[in-house]
UniProtKB/TrEMBL annotation:
Coiled coil: none
Residue intervals of the Putative zinc-finger domain: 11-44
UniProt name for this protein: Anti-sigma factor
Residue ranges of the region described as Disordered: 86-109
InterPro entries the record matches: Anit_sigma_mycothiol_RsrA, Znf_put
Organism of this sequence: Streptomyces griseoruber
């Protein structure tokens, strides 16, 4: 998405790091650049507003549930892998070995 206008901070950079901005997980210097970009770029500002609304809705609707400790650890572990640029396994690496299940035909059930 881009408004087609030149900006000091490119639209793609803003959108790639939008959640870091929303979650206040970036340095103040970068936050200031993003704020400036939003004042200049209405498509990015609209996307920001939409994502902020979704985040608030999820927090309001799901913010009361306690996350199981093991699930939290798994998610944080995967995020660390992604941030470090490592490949993320498709299966649950914290679980024991997967035991194959033989298919049951309709006649056997």
């Amino acid at each position: 998405m881009s408004c087609g206008e030149p900006h000091e901070t490119d639209c793609s950079e803003v959108l790639d790091h939008l959640y870091e901005f929303l979650d206040s997980e970036m340095p103040d210097v970068d936050r200031d650049k993003f704020k400036q970009h939003f004042t200049e770029c209405s498509p990015c500002l609209e996307k920001y507003g939409l994502e902020e609304a979704v985040k608030k809705l999820v927090k309001r609707c799901c913010g009361h549930d306690d996350v199981p400790t093991d699930l939290r650890a798994k998610v944080l572990g995967r995020l660390d892998l992604i941030r470090s640029g490592q490949a993320v396994p498709e299966h649950d690496v914290t679980a024991g070995p997967v035991t194959p299940v033989s298919p049951v035909s309709p006649q056997e059930s």
